[in-house]
Amino acid sequence: MNKFIASAVLTATLSACGTAQAERAVPIPAAKMDVPKTAGLQTAVLAGGCFWGLEAVFERVKGVKAVTAGYAGGTRSTASYDQVATERTGHAEAVKLVYDPAQVSYGTLLRVYFSIAHNPTELNRQGPDSGPSYRSAIFPQTAQQKAVAAAYIAQLGQARVFPKPIVTKLEGGAFFPAEEYHQNFFDRNPTHPYIVRWDKPKVAGFKAGFPSLAR
């Protein structure tokens, strides 16, 4: 469902029932394999449902210097919200993270991603949003990231920390920034019905589950 349509449906529900309780981070182990620390900033690209919530969570992670909402997996010519919403572009809503590996590792970012930023067991959907643009996908930016992501998915699968199989895929493709009105949407629209219902609980859950990582 288009998130703007979902927001209209949610307005009356939130007025009658109040806001949702904070989500809890799924207690998952740290990655056994990680990308070695390097000098300089690094980039990660992750997809897992609406990029508003992903952006909001990762903006609050210590060591993450910048977060950009955008599209990954399709072409530049179709990297717009109206086209991506048709579910025919191959794009996923995603975020690009610029982070300092001296402060936070790639494996730690993946731990937050799998634990609270989204549900990795939902296929082509997250919450009220359905379609391949809301899929769970990691877009490794280096061969090391690809190896670490693959190993961590396998590690979590073997540990059976989720009640259902992980459906997250490793994909290739460029990242394209989304429209300006999507950037920093959580902080600029704190009373938006979608933010209140789906994203504020994630942020609260992150802060509760990862206090040492939260800004």
Can you give a write-up of this model?
The chain has 215 residues and is of the alpha+beta class. The chain has a single domain, classed as Peptide Methionine Sulfoxide Reductase, Chain A, CATH 3.30.1060. The protein is built from 7 helices and 8 strands. The protein has helices at residues 3-17, 51-58, 81-84, 106-117, 143-159, 185-188, 193-209, and strands spanning 42-48, 64-72, 92-99, 125-126, 129-130, 136-139, 169-170, 175-177. It is globular. The strands form 2 sheets. It has a 6-stranded mixed sheet, with helices on one face. Strands 4-5 form a two-stranded antiparallel ribbon. One of its GO terms (molecular function) is peptide-methionine (S)-S-oxide reductase activity. The active site is at residue 50. Has an important function as a repair enzyme for proteins that have been inactivated by oxidation. Catalyzes the reversible oxidation-reduction of methionine sulfoxide in proteins to methionine. Keywords: Oxidoreductase, Signal.
